[in-house]
Amino acid sequence: MSVQGSEEEDGVSIFSTLSTRKRKKGREQGKERKRKTTLAEETPLEDQGGERQRRKSSGKRKKGSRGSGDGGKEDQGAGASVPGDGGGGGGALGDGFRATGLNAWVCSVCDSLGMKKATPVQSACIPPILGGRDVVACAETGSGKTACFLLPALQMLAKDRVGVFCLVLVPARELAYQALEQLRGLGGNVMGISGVAIVGGMSVTDQCRELARKPHFVFATPGRLKDILIHDSSCAEAFKRLRMFVIDEADRILDPSFEEDLKVIGGYLPSKRQTLLFSATISKNIEVLQEVVMKDCFKWSQHDTFKTVEKINDQYLFVPEKVKEVYLFHILQKFEEMKVRSAMIFVKSCESCHVLSYLLDELDILAVALHSQQKQKKRMSSLNKFKSGVCPILVATDVASRGLDIPTVDLVINFDLPFLPREYIHRVGRTGRAGRSGRALTFVTQYTIQLLHSIESLTGRKLSNYETKEKEVLKHITRVFAARKAVRLRIEEEEEAKA
Asked: In terms of domains, do 347 and 439 share one?
């Protein structure tokens, strides 16, 4: 048996991605089910996987059937019986992922999900991750960074099924749930795989109970995980045999605001572990950490400087501060002309997000809001409505600027410029995902010109001017100002009701 074939057999015992052949009707179907049930009861997990693989390899194949390749050869290598391989002729499966060192069953998962070729960050970083090295990677948004650590983690977990195998820290709750969903997609055929999101806004008791079961993957926000580790020793015990520690959106997690949380969490993790840092931008804190803490570190960056996604057409619109809402209403009226299906509008604060969502409601524009002061149920509801296309506009703070994968976002509007220029890169990265084209429009007032210059200096890219006709814009001023007044009254009534 070839090395590849042996490797695949080992994998199938834990990660079974082989599609079941159509069985004969009537008695043969009943007998086959009964025989499989007996095997499952009497045969250990690894023997079951090996038996399935041997039966598939030795069974007669119909001429021209999938996996038979050129003339139905018996020995097609490790990928012979994996659906989507295209037979022995090479095919899409493995063109990008086999070269990274991933096993055949992991490659077949990628193929079934339409991931035909590894992205640059995946091609560069998966091999050293599989080799056990620490990794620091900087790649643009939408480049597949989450799959870059989940795929090798799934493969490595097959060899070492400890309790909590991988801990992933993220800066926002929505990112934890999104990463958990990606795990379920990539590990959908994994036998007994488990994962959990540990975030604020949810029941601490329920989360402690889930951690006590020692799930293989934990996706957490630093603050909530720190609190649980301090107050529940059984949860802290779950991380004693951790193998992989991932910090996603590392430039944000390593900011001073999370410093105390990281110190506490680090004290509960084993010193012998693999550490991976992923980000769309590199900060000084990342550079310091990799020099001081990370040993034998593999460093990879997709670009030398801070850059936005190449296929984004980012423009600016100079507007007077007092009529920003009027210009926004004008832009939203042109969605059909601009061929925009959905858009994200970024604002500077939770209060601004709340007010602007009310304003759009008064103007009969369907929109939902997302900010950190909402209850978690409301946040998830808003995000799901937007992602599903039920609502075409999401008004959000920077809580939605990182990592959220919503492929249909055609336009990002920076209603308020971010205080930190690097946040601009993360915001506009919500469009133009995974090689698609996108568009970003930034409102610049007389008070934020310097911020625009800072962004252009950081990205090395000049924003072009978006042309508008002032008379056409201002014809909506009466309607918008009337809506603004109605919003103020609405908010005052809410405050009085709370008091």
From this structure: yes
